[in-house]
Amino acid sequence: MASSRDIRRRIKSVKSTAQITKAMQMVAASKMRKAQQAALAGRPYTTTMNRMLAELLPATGDFSHPLMERRPGGSRCVILVSTDKGLCGALNSTLFREAAKFDKDTTVFISAGRKAGQFLARARRSLLAEFSYKDAPLFSEARAISKFVQEGFLKGEYHQVDVLFTNFVSTLTQRPEVISLLPLHEISAVQAAPGGEKPGLALLKGATEFLFEPSTHEVLGALLPHYLNYRLYQVLLEAKASEHSARMVAMKNATENANQLVKDLTLQYNKMRQASITKELLEIATAQMALA
Question: Which CATH architecture has domain 27-247?
Answer without folding.
Answer: 3-Layer(aba) Sandwich (3.40)
